[in-house]
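Q: I have 341 residues here and want to know how they pack in 3D. Can you give me a structure?
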Amino acid sequence: MRLKAEQLPAHLTKLGLLPVYYISGDEPLQLQEASDRIRARARALGYEERNVMEADSAFDWGRLHEAGANLSLFSSKRIIELRLGGQKPGREGAAALTDYAAGYCQDNLLLLTSDRIDRKTQQTKWFKALDQCGCCIQVWPIAAAELPGWIMARCRQQEKQITREAAALIAQRVEGNLLAARQEIDKLALLVDQTHIDSGDVLNMVVDSARYDVFDLIENVFLGNPERISRMLRGLKNEGIEPLNVYGALMWGFRRASSVSHEIARGKPKEQVFNAYRVLDRHRKGVNMLIKRFGPGRLAALLVEALETDKALKGAVAADGWQLLENFMFALAGHRLEKTR
């Protein structure tokens, strides 16, 4: 059966548990909390022993069979926790999971977790076998527009009322990181004496939990997100990152995208070019948007324009290197700024 994460608490209030729960997704807090709910319910029903296995590339899938078949020394009921992470089961793992689903022991609970799975995986024999005998739950990141509402709901769980403006301020500062958002909510609930929390409380107590990464910044340049570019660039500057390091990483990605654009313009298949230049799947959207925004000729002109920023950052000309870097990033994002005088 399939469940949404928000349906899990009601499901778990029913008597007993299904023999298998498979939780997948890229949102760590929701995945963690769903797993915690299942473990807590299992402990309440007498599952006292817990066997945790990390399925890395060298994992022996025979261990799953042994865990399911061996009698427990400490309890008649046992949780078998198998963490796949980003690993695929492979042929051996697929067979092991299918066999487990076909011959599970009623006194064992298999809790399987992994990163987000795609539609193709959901069509495999092993996934269908788990789905048939147990429950599959996919967790999804909270959309930016929904995050303030999620924060308000979490505050109500702490018996606190937070204004939407204050919730939006937390959402902006944690940059979609639900673990960081939960930490800030817990801190506010502990430190704010009154029931109501407003923007002033947040400004006083919430630290900037966003972690700015250079390559994430470059991805947003290619995607054309000016607000995030400016915010993340300020964050890197405040963290003491050298602007030449940011510029060097940007130019590496930009030159590669320019080469990709030229190869595609010459008639080579896009997929073949992406593979040749080792553009990862998660970065292809940004590169696609950049080369659609500018033709090969315009990209070459922007490459020449980058020399002005390069000179400023190396002290060859008297100019604000950070400002020129931001201007150049905005130009690549399709939002050219007025030149500073």
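Q: Anything worth noting?
A: The longest helix spans residues 243-265. The radius of gyration is 25 Å.
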